[in-house]
Amino acid sequence: MNPALMKIRDDKYSSDEEKIIRDIQQLLTKNRHGMTISEISRNLGINRTLILNVLNLMVGQGEISMRSFGRAKVYTLSSKIPIARLLSLSSDLFLVVDEELFIEDLNDAFASFFKMNSDVIKGTNIIYSPIPHLFSHDIIQALQDASSGTKRIFEDYVGFEGSQFFFRISCIPIQESDFSTKVALVLHDLTLHKKYEEELERQLNARTSELSSSIRRYEVLAEVAPVGIFETDVQGKVIYVNKKWCEITGTDSDEVTGSKWMKSIHRDDREWIKKLWYEHVSEQIPWNHPIRYQKKNGEEVHTLGMAVPLRTDNGEVTGYLGTIVDITERVAAEQIIQNLNEYLTTVLENANDGVATLDIERKFTSCNAAGCKILGYERSDLLGQSIRKLYESDDEFKNNGKEIYLELSQTGHYRGEVNIVRGDGKNRIVEVSISEMKNNGTITGIIILFRDVTESIRVKNEALIQEQRLKTILDGLVDAVCVIDRHGNILYANACASRYLSGSDVLNGEKHQLSEYIPKNELNSLRSYYQKIIDSQIPDSKIICLTIREQNICFLNRAVPIRFGEHSVDAVLSLSLDTRILEHE
User: Fold this and answer.
1) In terms of residue numbers, what domain contains 135?
2) Residue 482: which CATH number?
3) 59: buried, middle or exposed (CB in 10 Å: 19+, 13-18, 0-12)?
4) pLDDT (tens digit, 9 = 90+) per residue, 448-465?
5) How far apart are CA 21 and CA 10, in angstroms?
6) 206 band by pLDDT with thresholds 50, 70 and 90
7) Which of 41, 91, 141, 560 could be cross-linked to 573 through a Cys-Cys bond (beta carbons 3.0 to 4.6 Å apart)?
8) Is the pLDDT of residue 90 over 80?
9) DSSP secondary-structure letter at 236?
10) β-strand 238-241 against 152-160: which pairing, if any?
């Protein structure tokens, strides 16, 4: 475009130019289907060259759009500034088409990558452009789906100039103010990431091959691994355990060979674990199950166990290779949550309230036994005495009295916390609820309901500290920890769970539901499962496979019924470990 023309907008139009632009806008407003250069020139009585220059300027500024029909160029009013111009600084490749797949705009990155002239390709139908031939996927169908309102996101190779590039491709419908639909084609370059993944996969395969060919390397790796590792023969009898396995279970390696390892399992679980293990071995299927061990000193150890069949190149099973992970701290965390709720409930249920009355001179006229105990005085020491004796200073007595009586005069009621000095000299905090006493409309005194909340405040502060410590512990786990009520509301999610659900360490906002993150066909089954846990009040463990953020992930899930929060809501504590973690370990 002529630089002088591009500068017109920045330097402000001359009066003649502004008039031509206004005339063109009015003309195109009356002819919504568009007009050619010749039609505009003829209607305005201005030569084609000047009209063409002004039209090019208006197209560049996004005020009008141009489509090519053969050699003819048709101009129409634009609905808004080109989206690609707004994203000119983006490294993603960006192109916009209308409902009929005519190219309306593209950013510099798109034009540069595919070596295209933006002015030439704008206004042409993408179907007849070189672009579809560069994709191995049917990009036209994806754009048509998006034009119909269905967003399409997929990954695909794009071939260009003898090279292949890997992109995340998004076809996103955009609803315009005039109810027309545009489609944004966004290409995010994943080529380097894909090459890195392929290189990692190549390295992993090489290391796996190395491991299979060298027993010594396997033994060294097993001894330094941070998880317990065991190997069995084809009958499921142990032939090897690493040092960490012995450390977790509290046994020596020579005490667990063959079937002797069953003796280290907790005696209450031994028989059914044994039965379940040999059923898996006989069917030659993978094993995923929690196991509770008991050390010689009686200490219980909770673990997650996983084992897979070892097969020859011909597929023959020669044994099992497995791991155990110590989750005792995680189980303890479950107990901490439960104990904390029970503790807070006990404190509240055992609180004793005091009741006292004062006359208009603020002297005690009555006080019940619980009140005397809270205030630290005998009843005879309070009756007829001013409430001033409970305050540390005259100023505190006066200031607090003004605040209370001001509220009483306006609403007839006061509720708050007051610092007092007990009869034994101890400072306490009492929660008070004060109301006026009246006789035939005349105020005769006040009645005070109160309770000592000093200990409750201390306990609450400690509970907050414990809760924060607990959240810190839970945020450090590799498990995804959630608290979910029977309606599918997410009451709590640790950092790991938040990352699975939303991609960030925390869930934004206050209220969240499973339905926001899990497909409906999987949600009903999961919610029914959690409701069953809540109704039966029996914990359960099983493998759960879910589609989260377009990924299918299998978790080893432990579901425990709890009462959560200050209102003791019936809920499930869900602790989920990504089975891929165990596979990698």
Assistant:
1) 83-193
2) 3.30.450.20
3) buried
4) 999 888 887 887 777 677
5) 15
6) confident
7) 560
8) no
9) S
10) unpaired
